[in-house]
Every structure is written in C-alpha cells, then in structure tokens.
Amino acid sequence: MSRWNNSLKYKEYLANTISTVSNAPIIAIIVFALINYYFLKGNEYIMVTSISLIFATIIPSIIAFLWVKYKKLEIDMPRKEDRFYPLLWILSSYLLGVIILLLISAPPITTILMFCYFSNTLVVLIISLFWKISIHSVGVAGPVAALIYVFGYVGLIALILIPLVMWSRLYLRRHTLFQVIVGALLGFILTIVQIYFFI
Q1: Global pTM?
Q2: Which of the four, 1, 5, 181, 197, has the lowest number of CB atoms within 10 Å?
Q3: DSSP codes of every residue in 83-96
Q4: What are the pLDDT digits (tens) for 5-16?
C-alpha cells in the first residue's frame, strides 16, 4: 500500500512539475533563446533575445501573477471565466513585442513567432469565451512547430514535450482528452500555417 501511495505521489509531483515548467512564458524562454542563437551572435543575440523575453515572458508572467493574486485564483486559472482579462493584457504585450522586433529588424522567424504568440492567444481567448481549451497544449505545440521549422529533424526531438504536457493536464484533471488534443493541434497547425504564410 505504501509503495502504491508513493507511486501516486510521484506521479502527482511529476505532473505538477511538467505543468508548471510548460507554462507559455517559460517555454518562450527556451524557444526564443534557441532560435535567436541559431541566427544571431554577440550583442545582436543579447538584444533580440532580451526584447523577445521581455514581451513573451516577463510582462505576461507579471500580468498573470498580479491577476491571480488580485482575484485569489489558482496559478493556472482552471476556470475559463477567469482567463479573459489577463489574456487581453497579455495580447497587448505580444503585439508590442511584434512591433519592436520589426523595428529592430530581428530575424523574420523571431518576429513571426512573436506574432504567433499574439494570434494563437487571440484564438484561445475567443474559444475560452465558450469552451475550456487547454492553454498549456496550445502554448507548447506552437513553439515546438517553430523549433521543427528552424532545426528540421533535430527539432523533432521537441515533439516529446507535447504528449508529456497533455498527460500532465489530464492527470491533474484540469482538462478532458478532447481539450488537450484540440489545444495541441490548434497550436501546432496555426503556427506552421503562419510561418509558411509569412516566410
């Protein structure tokens, strides 16, 4: 019985850890850092990556934290009704990021990825008015699509993140199977379509 309880505790710990580190702002750190490193070096890399992370990680994280604290919510905002206003403000951060990246002539894929964060989040916001789509699934599948586009076969390694995130959200009973599948497909397909359309 003790071994069974330990196994359950381990699975819950693992699911919580995966769920926490797969939040969109954290995934953004990895994906922008890798993609910018592939195209840029030195001061250019530092500048473009810093701007990317300010608008894709730091500002969205502050907005989410303040909203959660103000409304006394759980950190991942499990109720769809609680998502509208923070997502609205986060959208403005992504859009400003797109504008600044355009102004400094960042690599096209960096600017397009920031735009994907904006447009994918806009779609999520609209869907969330009616249905609880998995933001985690959207937030990991989109960047994975970008990594595959940039790094080719090597980028396929990142695909393992999608089922891991889906499992964590299901195990924690935050979403149904349909919600995580639709989220993953939406994030991946929207990102790939936008990358190929703009490039």
Answers
A1: 0.92
A2: 1
A3: SHHHHHHHHHHHHH
A4: 666 788 889 999
Inform me whether the pLDDT recorded for 59 exceeds 90: yes
Burial class (CB in 10 A: 0-12, 13-18, 19+), 38: middle
Owner of token pair 């008015």: 129
Match 């990680």 to its residue by tokens.
Answer: 57
| Single-letter amino acid code for the residue at 174 | R
Residue 16 domain boundaries: 2-198
| Maximum Cα interatomic distance, the chain, rounded to a whole number of Å | 61
- The total of structural domains in the chain comes to 1
Estimate to the nearest angstrom the gap between the alpha carbon of 137 and the chain centroid: 8
What are the structure tokens assigned to 113, written together? 């990825």
Confidence of residue 70 (pLDDT cuts 50, 70, 90): confident
Distance CA 9, CA 7 (A): 5
